[in-house]
Design a protein that fits this description.
By secondary structure, the protein is an alpha+beta fold. It is about 40% helix and about 20% strand. It is globular.
């Protein structure tokens, strides 16, 4: 039986008291964070600062975590008074994978408490990801893990990213993490993974990732080769997830939304939308795919579109063979 089966939904007085207690704590947190010297106030003041400078200014919140202990203690006090109360903490992730709490977020700056539960026999990370920005990480519980650093060799600013021009990723041998040290990363060129853990991992993660034309790049650690590229913009990522959901549901009536997304400023978002549209409805994708092959500003997107266009006889034949009976489709909206 689920814990939620016992929720006191028929006890309005108890539910009201729980909501009032959570709201009061949330208001206390807002007042603390937005006052001069507070965490949110500090983040707001750094909205236009370079990522490394923002990290420098916010390091005190990683070095002294008394404020975090107090915040978690207040949340536990609420739960002790009523296990069904919802403390004002923003959860991310869940299930058997990584999860945690977003402690504060303003614009491109996010401070999170991240938990990686230990699973016996789980494989170590096989990939490392890089994106424009900076990060500072404090390991609060290391689970006896070793630290492995990764870096893109010879990474340098360039006018446009191409997979063909991507550098290799080099990885250092695993080493015991330095004690009581805050790890600093230029995340466009540096990454870290924790391997060989024998217990849960708990990290305090401060990240600054401003909007960038440089995509998120994922490398295979064993070979050092680039294996995946994705948009670094959060709005583009959300649209890609929404379009993927429409594609999974077979919503061919949503084709105009995919076509619109193929005009995105971000090349990775454009190609992601086109790939999904081709899989969903090759006929609807033919014209925008031809336009992309002829005139997309990114050379690799043009090449990929041209190669896909050459496959069209077989793609359309496969679609015709599996096409369902024609039925009116509901309106698709994102």
């Amino acid at each position: 039986m689920s814990r939620h089966d016992h929720f006191p939904r028929h006890d309005p007085a108890r539910c009201g008291a729980a909501r009032a207690a959570a709201d009061a704590l949330a208001e206390d947190r807002r007042a603390e964070d937005t006052c001069p010297g507070g965490l949110i106030a500090a983040m707001d003041a750094l909205a236009d600062a370079p990522p490394a400078a923002a990290i420098d200014a916010l390091l005190p919140w990683l070095a002294d975590i008394g404020w975090l202990r107090a915040r978690l203690a207040a949340a536990l006090t609420l739960i002790a008074a009523d296990p069904f109360v919802r403390p004002p903490l923003r959860l991310v992730g869940g299930g058997d994978g990584p999860c945690g709490l977003v402690l504060a977020e303003r614009g491109a700056i996010r401070l999170s408490l991240l938990l990686q539960p230990f699973t016996a026999g789980a494989a170590d990370p096989a990939t490392a990801s890089f994106r424009a920005g900076a990060a500072a990480i404090r390991i609060l519980a290391g689970g006896s893990a070793r630290l492995r650093r990764h870096r893109i060799v010879g990474a340098a600013a360039r006018p446009a990213f191409t997979a063909a021009g991507a550098r290799c990723c080099e990885s250092d041998p695993p080493q015991p993490p330095p004690k009581d040290t805050i790890l600093r990363l230029d995340t466009a060129r540096e990454a870290m993974t924790l391997v060989g853990a024998s217990g849960d991992l708990l990290l305090l993660d401060l990240a600054v990732h401003p909007p960038s034309s440089l995509p998120v790049q994922t490398y295979d650690i064993a070979s050092g080769r680039l294996v995946h590229v994705a948009s670094a913009r959060r709005d583009a990522s959300f649209r890609q997830m929404a379009l993927a959901l429409l594609g999974a549901f077979g919503r061919r009536d949503a084709a105009p939304l995919f076509v619109e997304a193929t005009r995105d400023d971000d090349f990775a978002a454009r190609w992601s939308a086109m790939r999904q549209l081709v899989a969903l409805d090759p006929a609807a994708a033919r014209a925008p795919l031809a336009a992309m092959a002829a005139a997309d500003p990114h050379p690799e997107v043009r090449a990929a579109a041209s190669a896909t266009l050459a496959l069209y006889p077989s793609l359309c034949a496969a679609q015709d063979a599996h096409a369902p009976d024609d039925r009116p489709a509901a309106d698709a909206r994102i």
